[in-house]
Amino acid sequence: MATNLLSVLERRPFTAPLVVVTTVLLLFLLASEGSYSVAALSAASLIALVLFLRQTAALARQQREAQQLVQSANDRLQFDVTQRTAQLTDLTQHLQTAREDERNRLARELHDELGSLLTSARLDAARIKSRLAGSAPDAQERLAHLVETLNSIGAMKARIIENLRPSALTLLGLATALQILCREFTEVSDIEVHCAIEPIRLRPNAELVVYRLVQEAVNNITKYAQARNVWIKLALNQDEVQASVRDDGIGFDPHTATRAAYGLVGMRFRVEAEGGTLAIESSPGQGALILMSLPVSTLAAAAAVDPL
Ligand SMILES: Nc1ncnc2c1ncn2[C@@H]1O[C@H](COP(=O)(O)OP(=O)(O)O)[C@@H](O)[C@H]1O
Ligand SMILES: [Mg+2]
Asked: For the segment 231-265, what is each residue's pLDDT rounded down to a tens digit?
């Protein structure tokens, strides 16, 4: 009842004077019939009621205006945050593309420049070897050592190039590239690697994102996890593509942001730029799970299934 009255007072400010005028008329009638004390009392209470209602209405109006101000400030903030997040996602994507381009350029230079220097050094070594044939055993031994060193440099060059620009990914596809990554990881670490990779092909960008995510997660496991087992999965579920890397190591608190640690942050932005989500689940002593979900729209065009 009071609320109704309040809203009426607010919507029609002339209601209050109208009530007062009506009351005065009523009182006048009562007074003309001789009931002065009743009339005076009623007049005082009515005026008090009207004043109270007006005051309350003004307060409510002020409160609503303040709420509207807060709401519009919130909306503006929300808009700014959304816009900044979109800008950051774009920037990350741009930086990642620039980074991949730079990696490609470096890989090309290593392949061409270092490759030709190595070839020429090997040729020289072969010529010297033929000149030394049957003489200077000391020099021959040195030369054999030099050839070995050149071969090691060649192998290192190939490894660096593969790391910079995973040729397996472009030539053989995601699933095979991940199988190779699993195999290499098993070879260089004491960790038991369990690989469950479905033969899925994604669009090139998405394949690179998944590959780099697994690479980063595996690097982190090597550096920090002290794990005994690692599970690497790639699967197509009903409505999304999921890639995950889990370990049974020492774990960590994902909410404690480490300064200057951009591996996990970079992962999240790259996954989100592909329309996906990234979950990092871990706590001290409980191992870690990095789970990435991508929409099925990232699947490559029809029938593009990795032959494995
Ligand atoms: N699998 C893991 N096990 C234990 N700790 C981890 C693991 N992955 C990440 N971390 C912790 O999270 C931090 C952030 O990782 P990351 O963002 O990749 O940065 P960076 O590798 O450059 O340190 C690491 O410094 C490490 O403390
Ligand atoms: Mg890292």
From this structure: 999 999 988 999 999 999 999 998 886 666 788 88
Secondary element (H or E) of residue 194: strand 192-197
Is residue 8 exposed (0-12), middle (13-18) or buried (19+ Cβ within 10 Å)? middle
Ligand at shortest distance from the CA of 264: 1
Task: Give pTM, 2 decimals.
Answer: 0.68
Q: From the CB of 264, is ligand 1 less than 6 Å away?
A: yes
| pLDDT tens, residue by residue, 150-196 | 999 999 998 899 888 888 888 889 999 999 999 989 988 899 999 99
Ligand 1 close to Cβ of residue 229 (< 6 A): no
**Phi, psi for 287 (deg, rounded to 5):** 70, -170
* Ligand 1 pocket, residue 254 CB under 6 Å: no
Cα–Cα distance for residue pair 49/212, rounded to 1 Å: 73
State how far the alpha carbon of 247 is from the alpha carbons of 52, 61, 128, 146, 225, in Å: 68, 58, 52, 42, 8
Identify the residue whose C-alpha is closest to ligand 1 atom 20: 261
